[in-house]
Amino acid sequence: MKLKERLKKDFRLWARSLSDLFLKRECVCCGRQLESFESGVCTFCLAELPSSYTWVSGESPADKTFWGRTSIEKVTSLFLYNGKYRNLVYSIKYGGNIRLGIRLGRMLGEVIAEEDIDYIVPVPLHPRKKRKRGYNQSEVIGRGMLLALKENNPAVKMETGLLERKNFTPTQTRKDRADRWTNVRNAFRVNMKRAVKLSENGRVPKILILDDVLTTGATLDACATLLHEAVSCRISIATLAYVP
Ligand SMILES: [Zn+2]
Known about the structure:
This protein is of the alpha/beta class. The protein has a single domain (25-242), classed as Rossmann fold (3-Layer(aba) Sandwich). Helices cover 42% and strands 15% of the residues. The strands form two sheets. A five-stranded parallel β-sheet has the order 1-7-6-2-3, sandwiched between helices. The protein has a two-stranded antiparallel sheet with strand order 4-5. Strand 6 (206-214), helix 10 and strand 7 (234-242) form a beta-alpha-beta unit. Helix 5 crosses helix 7 (137-152) and helix 8 (177-185) packs across helix 10 (218-230). It is globular, with a radius of gyration of 19 Å.
C-alpha cells in the first residue's frame, strides 16, 4: 500500500474512533452500539438478514409479480421487507445513510454478478423530490451494485438519464387496480435520445431496472413497459427489499 493511501486509511480509522467517543453510533435495525469496524448495521443483524432467495428459483414470488405483464427476465431482491429490517430501507431513503445504501447495493450486486447486465437504470425521483432529499436512493444503491458488477464486467454502466419522471400527481379517486397501474405509467417517460444511443449498431442491450423496494410492482412494470416500447432491449429487475 502506498504511503498516501495508508495515511488516508489511518486517518479514517482515527476519525471514526474519535467520533465514537462523542457520537453514539447505533445499528439501524436493533439499536445495539456499533463497533468501530461496523457501519450502519451490526454484524449480528446482517448475519440474520432475511434472504428472499429470489435468485435461487426461477419462479419466485417476486418473479410472479410481473406474470402476465411486461416481459421481465429475472427479478432479484436481497432481503424480505419485514420487522426491524424495514429500517435499512428507511435509513437509506430518509436518513441520508448513503454508506449503508452503497454497502447493501454492493451485496445485491454480488448476488447477480453472473448476469450479463449492460446498463443499470435506477427508478428516477421527480427532480423536485431529488433536490429536497439531496439524492436518489436507487442511484445510491446502484453505485454499490456497480462496484460488484464491474469485477466481472468492466463495461457495465449506470444510466440515470434514460428514464425521467414527469410532473404528475396520480388521482386518488380511482381505486381500480388497472387504473392505478395506468396512472403510474403516466408518471414516467423515456429520453429517446438516450434510448437510441443504447441500441446503436443494432445491439439489444440488457437493462437492469433498480429500485429500493418491490411492493405491488406497478412502478417497475411502468418503467419496463415504457423501455420495451422505446427500444429493443432485455430487462431484469433488482430491488434491495421485497414485500412478501
Ligand atoms: Zn443490529
